[in-house]
Design goal:
Layout: E1 8-13, E2 19-20, E3 26-32, E4 36-44, E5 51-53, E6 58-59, H1 62-66, E7 71-81, E8 86-95, E9 101-106, E10 121-125, E11 129-135, E12 142-144, H2 153-157, E13 164-172, E14 177-184
Parallel strand pairs: 2-8
Antiparallel strand pairs: 1-3, 3-6, 4-5, 4-7, 7-8, 9-10, 11-12, 11-13, 13-14
Length: 185
């Protein structure tokens, strides 16, 4: 029997650009070859420096996943058949385990405001922002925003004179939450 075709690998999951957090992703691949050597299927997350064998669909090795930095990961699957032909397929996925970063540009701590609600300027950094909001009362009432603006006037009017903590929050599509606050008067 002669066989010069490499095994065919179809990656069903994960899908390209899918984002994962701290838990290693599961995978589902379909490998076809008339002479597949089932003891010769493996994947790598680091260009082949470390290889992980598998016999069934499952989950990426958690310790290998933990060792990877935040960012784009190339997950490559391999399979060999009995004549030694090697098939390969890869998918680019994203590891995101960091919370959004919030830089509060204004107002500054100790700024004093009167009856007009203060404007704010924040810079939120994360590739997968979902929602941004702020609170003046420790989270009893939250106000979403999409761009820098002015604090909700009705909320500002409801505040007593004195120190107020204006706290900003942002979450990403994986549920990571970042925050930053400032004390104003």
């Amino acid at each position: 029997i002669t066989d010069d075709d490499a095994p065919s690998i179809k990656i069903n999951s994960p899908i390209p650009s899918e984002v994962f957090a701290v838990s290693a992703p599961s995978f589902n691949v379909r490998i076809t070859d008339d002479y597949l050597n089932e003891d010769e299927m493996w994947y790598t997350l680091d260009g082949g420096l470390n290889n992980y064998t598998f016999t069934d669909n499952g989950t990426i090795d958690q310790l290998a996943w933990d060792a990877l930095p935040n960012g784009t990961i190339t997950l490559t699957f391999y399979a060999s058949d009995k004549p030694g032909n090697i098939g390969t397929a890869e998918v680019m996925i994203i590891k995101d385990f960091e919370s959004p970063t919030i830089n509060l540009n204004s107002p500054d701590s100790g700024d004093v405001f009167g009856v007009s609600a203060p404007s704010f300027n924040v810079r939120v950094t994360d590739d997968y922002i979902d929602t941004m909001w702020y609170t003046l009362d420790g989270g009893l009432h939250n106000y979403t925003f999409t761009t820098n603006s002015t604090v909700n006037q009705t909320a500002w009017d409801a505040m007593d004179n004195g120190a107020i903590t204006l706290r900003f929050y942002a979450n990403d599509t994986l549920g990571h939450i970042g925050s930053a606050g400032v004390n104003i008067i």
